[in-house]
């Protein structure tokens, strides 16, 4: 079942790459985070790790519900461009995405031979890191870039959850704190006109 | 052997029913007065009675092509995975054969469109060529990767294997293949994000544009062919991606199978009701996703084994 | 207690930034000196000294770096007093600048002192995010754009660092458990790590993240653009504190990586830095204004420091690093003064400083300018000498002596390009252009003198013996 969630995680990220509307992109991001949270919950349950379960709940609350909601509000408040056409044409993206996937899968093949628990998730999280980088690259507008940054954070969490069975609680809370800080800073950055001297 | 022929016959008979069901369901959801579920049969018998008029420009191709559209699809029906445990099935036909037969049928459909000599026919054919060129690679990759997961290249055998042993350890690549195949199901049958089967608006038509000049028996045959095509795709989806219920006794298994078909039809209807049709030049985006997922499924299976 | 004292100046700054009183900033200039007390105590205490359990540990390396960055922090606080005299800044933005400077400082103190990869990263991310807002306090469209730029690229770089950290953690978790985040344990158990490939991949990703953040190839110009668009103290903070924290991280990670596979580390980093210096030297040659010039030269020096460190000359790297950490903020702060009259003009920038203060100012600036291109009395001269010597002795062991001599010659050619450019700029500043009356304020001079004194004290025998004991 973990395979299933992780597959959905990657699938939503790939669909997000081809999205041309902002709200749809936010929806895929929320779905992506939800899958991450569910993954954390199910792994945490199977290895009986309370820290991981807490992480999963925080992920679902903050990333799957909170952040998309805040971003949607921000986009209404500051009138974002909602039609976001990727700079990379679809025909190239179709070639690029599988190329990235093959590259990262083969890159991490030695790892698969080294760690035995959840080994190939490392490969998937590395490829989702690259895909979120691609998401940031292929858009000109700020809002999809933010979503790209956030899904990068998600792929980091995926790696943290699957490769290491959870990082120390202190570090994870710190990462969440920084994520919230990032949202605050993003919010502040949008206040452009109001503060003019 | 009897069960084998019986199931093919049943599938053939249920095909118009399925399309009428989808149409009726859609009308119901749009708060219209729904058509009867047997409308497909009525249309068929009505068309048989009608006079067949051919365009003056059309050549002999128009006389042969409708049969050549239907017959490869009928052949494919014989290669589908079994509906019931213990029934006979053709085990050795692989992804390439099925895709090839379906594209053969599409090829004659396009010829038919071109042959009518009208502007619409040519336009429809070129659009169909555009879509099916994108569908085929994804279709081959998807069916191929599912057959790999099932451990047998034959599609029929793959269906049986999947029912016996659900690929839990390959859930990720199985999921990708499922997403890809579902998009193909929508695209190849001209359902809404790709083509709207109900309009006759020149900007949006694909499938209808090709058969606009047909009438009478030929139209009946082409309509049957398109319903058979949907049944082929739906039953492939049902036996490859929802591989449950094969172990029950014959009537029950068959019932479960048809419930699955109607379930898939309902999902398609829900998607049709909720999603607007894509612009023609946005269709590569959707099919691109299908190709990416098909490829992803294959490499995830090969490299990661997940 | 130690931690509270260390964080006190930043906290006071944070709290006072909310007060509307314009006098309160003068208080900060004095309170910021408080940070020197605990640091001096740290030098005396036996090391490693646990400041906060095993999370924050002071050892010889990070005490030194903490001292450097605190002196820079004090200098910047002093120079900030007259920010409104040189650039146009609204009182509101001015207070916000202080507030986010405080956050930045707190983040980096954690980052520098951390003995835990996770805490190191959290501090770095906090600092990155607060810098974004510091850039934005300059209300120009360019600054706004560059703030976004910094947000995006900085976030990518920081995420890459975290990604690498997780991979390294995963590689060491089987033997160390949850303690696999601690630097000291990782160094001690580096040889036993069961999956070196995983560790090396994590290290490579982290290193690339750090290099992107320091402006190495291929992101050479982004820092320069950002520093150009923002207020000048931001540039000073970047080069003095942020890069210190990053370089400390690099030192720590590479200490582990050296034990795992020295050859891989050496080749990877050496080629990367050589490429960076190659590109940067030509970019410097074409630089048209002070900010970009100094910023690019900062990239060059960071590359040299990294190069010396991996070539097995920690002493050279640390000395160079110390000298750079003092020189670059000093130069950036004086850029603020130089550019306040007649923006962007290099020709004649140093002329027209009259009186005692003015003379002292131009003397100090010339001193810094000539020191940054490693003319002999500068600590940089000695560190480069040591560094190149160490490179050759490393190559001798590995039988790559010819390749190494070739690389060093190549490097010297590139450095001489930079040298030539700086001398040309200095001459243009001193002897070209028209003479105009210009002013310099006492607080800035105090900051510059502080940097100069710190720079000279790097050459004291006791400092050198301390640095030699670190490696």
Write the layout of secondary structure elements.
The complex is a heterotrimer of chains A (197), B (306) and C (471).
Chain A: H1 2-17, H2 22-47, H3 50-77, H4 90-107, H5 109-114, H6 119-137, H7 142-164, H8 169-190
Helix pairs in contact in A: 1-2, 1-6, 2-3, 2-7, 3-8, 4-6, 6-7
Chain B: H1 2-29, H2 39-49, H3 61-78, H4 95-115, H5 119-150, H6 155-164, H7 171-188, H8 207-210, H9 216-241, H10 250-274, H11 283-304
Helix pairs in contact in B: 1-9, 1-10, 2-9, 3-4, 3-9, 4-5, 5-6, 5-7, 5-11, 6-9, 7-9, 7-11, 9-10
Chain C: H1 2-16, H2 24-31, H3 36-44, E1 49-52, E2 56-58, H4 60-80, H5 83-86, H6 91-113, H7 117-136, H8 141-176, H9 183-188, H10 196-214, H11 222-229, H12 232-260, H13 262-285, H14 290-310, H15 314-340, H16 355-372, H17 379-398, H18 401-431, H19 442-457, H20 461-470
Antiparallel strand pairs in C: 1-2
Fold and architecture overview:
The complex is a heterotrimer of chains A (197), B (306) and C (471). Chain A has 197 residues and is mainly alpha-helical. Chain A is 80% helix and 0% strand. Chain A is built from eight helices and no strands. In chain A, α1 (2-17) runs parallel beside α6, α2 (22-47) runs antiparallel to α3 and α2 packs parallel to α7 (142-164). Chain B is mainly alpha-helical and 306 residues long. Chain B has one domain (2-304). The longest helix of chain B has 32 residues, at 119-150. Chain C is 77% helix and 1% strand. In chain C, a hairpin with a 3-residue loop joins β1 and β2. The radius of gyration of chain C is 21 Å and the shape is globular. The model of chain C has no long low-confidence stretch (mean pLDDT 86). The interface between A and C is large, with 41 and 41 residues.
């Amino acid at each position: 079942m973990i395979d299933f969630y992780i597959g959905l995680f990657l699938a939503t990220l790939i669909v997000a790459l081809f999205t041309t509307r902002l709200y749809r992109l936010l929806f895929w991001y929320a779905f992506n985070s939800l899958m991450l949270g569910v993954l954390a919950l199910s792994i945490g349950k199977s290895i009986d790790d309370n820290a991981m379960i807490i992480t999963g709940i925080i992920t679902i609350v903050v990333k799957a519900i909170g952040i998309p909601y805040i971003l949607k509000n921000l986009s209404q408040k500051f009138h974002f461009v909602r039609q976001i056409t990727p700079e990379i044409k679809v025909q190239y993206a179709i070639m690029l995405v599988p190329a990235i996937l093959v590259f990262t899968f083969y890159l991490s093949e030695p790892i698969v031979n080294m760690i035995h628990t959840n080994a190939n998730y490392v490969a998937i999280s590395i490829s989702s890191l690259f895909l979120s980088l691609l998401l940031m690259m292929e858009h000109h507008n700020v809002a999809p870039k933010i979503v790209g940054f956030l899904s990068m954070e998600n792929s980091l969490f995926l790696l943290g959850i699957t490769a290491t069975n959870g990082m120390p609680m202190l570090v994870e809370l710190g990462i969440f704190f920084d994520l919230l800080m990032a949202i605050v800073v993003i919010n502040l950055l949008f206040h452009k006109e109001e503060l003019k001297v | 052997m009897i069960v084998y022929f019986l199931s093919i016959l049943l599938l053939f008979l249920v095909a118009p029913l399925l399309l009428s069901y989808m149409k009726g369901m859609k009308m119901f959801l749009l708060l219209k007065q729904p058509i009867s579920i047997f409308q497909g049969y009525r249309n068929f018998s009505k068309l048989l009675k009608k006079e067949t008029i051919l365009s003056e420009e059309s050549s002999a191709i128009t006389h042969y092509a409708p049969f050549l559209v239907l017959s490869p699809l009928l052949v494919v029906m014989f290669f589908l995975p079994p509906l019931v445990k213990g029934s006979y099935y053709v085990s050795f036909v692989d992804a390439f054969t099925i895709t090839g037969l379906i594209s053969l049928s599409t090829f004659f459909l396009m010829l038919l469109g071109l042959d009518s000599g009208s502007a619409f026919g040519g336009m429809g054919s070129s659009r169909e060529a555009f879509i099916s060129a994108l569908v085929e690679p994804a279709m081959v990759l998807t069916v191929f990767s599912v057959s790999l997961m099932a451990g047998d290249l034959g599609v029929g055998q793959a269906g049986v294997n999947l029912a016996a042993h659900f690929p839990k350890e390959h859930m990720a690549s199985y999921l990708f293949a499922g997403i890809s195949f579902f998009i193909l199901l929508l695209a190849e049958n001209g359902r809404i994000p790709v083509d709207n089967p109900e309009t006759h608006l020149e900007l949006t038509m694909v499938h209808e544009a090709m058969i606009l000049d047909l009438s009478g028996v030929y139209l009946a045959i082409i309509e049957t062919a398109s319903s058979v095509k949907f049944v082929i795709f739906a039953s492939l989806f049902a036996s490859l991606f929802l591989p449950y219920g094969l172990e029950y006794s014959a009537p029950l298994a068959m019932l479960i199978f048809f419930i699955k078909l109607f379930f898939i039809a309902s999902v398609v209807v829900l998607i049709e009701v909720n999603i607007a049709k894509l612009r023609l030049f946005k269709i590569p985006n959707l099919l691109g996703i299908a190709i990416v997922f098909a490829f992803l499924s294959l490499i995830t299976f090969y490299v990661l084994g997940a | 207690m130690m931690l509270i004292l260390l964080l006190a100046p930043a906290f006071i700054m944070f709290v006072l930034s909310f007060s509307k009183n314009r006098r309160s900033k003068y208080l900060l200039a004095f309170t910021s000196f408080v940070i020197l007390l605990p640091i001096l105590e740290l030098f005396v205490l036996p090391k490693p000294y646990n400041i906060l359990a095993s999370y924050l540990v002071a050892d010889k390396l990070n005490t030194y770096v903490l001292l450097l960055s605190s002196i820079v922090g004090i200098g910047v606080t002093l120079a900030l007093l007259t920010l409104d005299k040189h650039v146009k800044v609204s009182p509101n933005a001015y207070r916000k600048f202080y507030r986010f400077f405080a956050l930045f400082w707190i983040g980096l103190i954690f980052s520098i002192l951390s003995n835990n990869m996770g805490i190191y990263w959290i501090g770095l991310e906090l600092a990155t995010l607060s810098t974004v807002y510091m850039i934005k306090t300059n209300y120009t469209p360019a600054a706004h754009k560059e703030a976004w730029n910094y947000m995006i690229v900085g976030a990518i770089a920081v995420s890459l660092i975290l990604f690498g950290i997780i991979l390294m953690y995963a590689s060491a978790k089987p033997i160390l458990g949850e303690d696999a985040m601690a630097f000291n344990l990782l160094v001690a158990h580096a040889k036993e790590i069961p999956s070196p490939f995983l560790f090396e991949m994590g290290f490579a990703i982290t290193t690339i993240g750090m290099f992107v953040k320091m402006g190495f190839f291929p992101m050479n110009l982004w820092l320069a653009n950002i520093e150009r668009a923002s207020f000048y103290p931001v540039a000073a903070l970047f080069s003095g504190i942020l890069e210190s924290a990053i370089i400390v991280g690099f030192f720590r990670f590479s200490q582990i990586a050296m034990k795992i596979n020295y050859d891989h580390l050496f080749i990877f980093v050496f080629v990367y830095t050589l490429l960076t210096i190659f590109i940067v030297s030509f970019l410097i040659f074409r630089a048209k204004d002070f900010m970009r010039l100094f910023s690019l030269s900062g990239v060059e020096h960071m590359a040299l420091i990294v190069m010396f460190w991996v070539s097995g000359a920690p002493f050279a790297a640390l000395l160079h690093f110390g000298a750079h950490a003092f020189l670059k903020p000093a130069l950036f702060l004086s850029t603020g003064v130089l550019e306040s009259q007649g923006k962007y003009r290099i020709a004649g920038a140093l002329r027209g400083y009259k009186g005692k203060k003015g003379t002292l100012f131009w003397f100090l600036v010339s001193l810094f300018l000539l020191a940054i291109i490693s003319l002999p009395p500068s600590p940089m001269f000695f560190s480069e000498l040591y560094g190149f010597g160490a490179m050759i002795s490393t190559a001798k062991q590995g039988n790559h002596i010819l390749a190494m001599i070739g690389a060093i010659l190549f490097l010297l050619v590139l450095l001489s390009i930079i040298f030539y450019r700086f001398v040309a700029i200095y001459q243009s500043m001193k002897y070209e252009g028209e003479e105009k009356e210009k002013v310099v304020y006492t607080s800035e001079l105090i900051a510059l003198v502080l940097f100069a004194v710190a720079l000279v004290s790097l050459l004291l025998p006791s400092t050198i013996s301390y640095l030699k004991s670190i490696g």
